[in-house]
Amino acid sequence: MKNQVHPILTKRPAAERGQANHGWLQANFTFSFGEYFDPDHMGFKSLRVMNNDTIQPGGGFPEHPHDNMEIFTYIIEGQLEHRDSMGNGATIKAGDLQYMSAGSGIQHSEFNPSKTKPTHLYQIWLQPNQRDGEPRYAEKPLGELVKDNQLTLLFSADGRDGSTAIRQDAEIYFGEIEKNQSVAVPTSSSSPHVWIQVISGNITMLGESLTTGDGLAIQNAADEFLIKTTTDTKLLLFRLS
């Protein structure tokens, strides 16, 4: 008889995240980033960056380099104007998600094009399992893809079920779930660890409660479990190896 492995849960409350205020940028850091360093919060499995940023009107990041990182940007409110050395240029709008695989190296810039409204976003980095590949770019208009009260697979290692293939053994889901619903998190023996990031709303699962900005690491979560909402909720869920 197999020994049962119980999930190990570690909550990262929004109020305990690192912070920075540069005037044009207010940032919350789930994990160590830039000048914020906490040896107890260096990432989770391949998940390395979970930054919750507010960019003031006209503010942004001028052209700068990245390499060997999988970069995802989800716009909560406002817009983000993007340009990169692959020739891509786009304005990413609220509710949309952008993906870049920096691979062997890219240059890009990101600005809030509005003169009056801030941009609120998450920027998320995964460490890749392949180095120095050809850079990639994709956009996900979630309003066209996401189904209510379900977890929608957006990114995966193999690009199955209409998801975009990424350079990591990971699955990234988005959920837009109404109040008082229960959603099953699918099983995965190859990616048994889970990170949940609440964009907005309130949820409970496995005896924990999370609210806006909270994150939860779940180790050894290969079995199915339920997420229950107590308000309308948006969240990102990562299955990681």
Keywords for this entry:
241 residues, seven-stranded antiparallel β-sheet, globular, 1 helix, Jelly Rolls, seven-stranded mixed β-sheet, 22 strands, mainly beta
What is the secondary structure topology, with strand pairs?
Blueprint: E1 8-12, E2 18-21, E3 25-29, E4 47-55, E5 60-66, E6 70-77, E7 79-84, E8 89-93, E9 96-101, E10 106-111, E11 119-126, E12 136-141, H1 142-145, E13 151-156, E14 164-165, E15 170-177, E16 182-185, E17 193-200, E18 202-205, E19 208-211, E20 215-219, E21 225-229, E22 233-240
Parallel strand pairs: 13-14
Antiparallel strand pairs: 1-20, 2-3, 3-4, 4-11, 5-10, 6-9, 6-11, 7-8, 7-10, 9-12, 13-15, 15-22, 16-21, 17-20, 17-22, 18-19, 18-21
Overview of this protein structure:
This protein has about 240 residues and is an all-beta fold. It has a single domain (about 10-240), classed as Jelly Rolls (Sandwich), CATH 2.60.120. It is about 0% helix and about 55% strand. The chain has 1 helix and 22 strands. It has a 7-stranded mixed sheet with strand order 1-20-17-22-15-13-14, with no helix packed on it. It is globular and about 50 Å long. The model has no long low-confidence stretch (mean pLDDT about 95).
